[in-house]
Amino acid sequence: MYSNLVVLNYHQKSIIMSLRLGDKAPNFKAKTSEGEIDFYEYLGDSWGVLFSHPGDYTPVCTTELGKTAALKDEFTKRNVKVLALSVDSVESHHGWIQDINETQGVEVNFPIIADEDRKISEAYDMIHPNASVNATVRSLFIIGPDKTVKLIITYPASTGRNFQEILRVIDSLQLTANYSVATPADWKEGEDVVVVPAIKTEDISAKFPKGFTLVKPYLRLTPQPNK
């Protein structure tokens, strides 16, 4: 039913083998655990997190979906909408959700996409032949309100995702999208940030009135500008 609904030129796909940062995220329509959705319409003006799972009833992914549900308020305050994806059916998803709710002490509150024909997985390069020819690898995409890809992380099946890191990256992406700064190693919300090289040192004070620290001519730190 949905074989022609992914908005992607599959002839191009044979040339452009995978999405890269800054690429437009392919739009799609799909069946989910919460009904049919259009991806772009679902996101609206929000940021998005789309992450895949090899299949339903997998142990590590069960804990991840539970953690995602538990962090609902954290995603909401950052204007982020979350979607998970598996190649199993909506019926299977509903059974798995019951297990997640029971074992993780949550209520799953976001759609899980049923990508049974693997069209979305192919569009997002979620199937890696070296890992599996018929199940998705554990990829995660952060997508901006402009529908471009801001972050891609692929995890091995044996390692659960670090959702505090995902939130940290969203904080950095949202901050750096609005101010001429970058975030240093291990940065967390509220800490000093790096003034981008495009701003001359003599112009920093006018742009960042909280002041700055000159560590090296190319390394200038300033308090987080929106705090």
TrEMBL record:
Active site, UniProt feature = 61 (cysteine sulfenic acid (-soh) intermediate)
NCBIfam families associated with the record: PRK13189.1
Tell me the GO BP annotations in alphabetical order. Answer: cell redox homeostasis
GO function terms (MF aspect): peroxiredoxin activity
* Similarity remark: Belongs to the peroxiredoxin family. Prx6 subfamily.
The protein here is known as Alkyl hydroperoxide reductase subunit AhpC (Peroxiredoxin)
- GO cellular-component term (any): cytosol
Tell me which InterPro entries the record gives. Answer: AhpC/TSA (IPR000866), Peroxiredoxin_AhpC-typ (IPR024706), Peroxiredoxin_C (IPR019479), PRX_1cys (IPR045020), Thioredoxin-like_sf (IPR036249), Thioredoxin_domain (IPR013766)
**Domain Thioredoxin per the UniProt entry, residue ranges:** 19-175
- Which Pfam family, giving just one, matches this sequence? AhpC-TSA
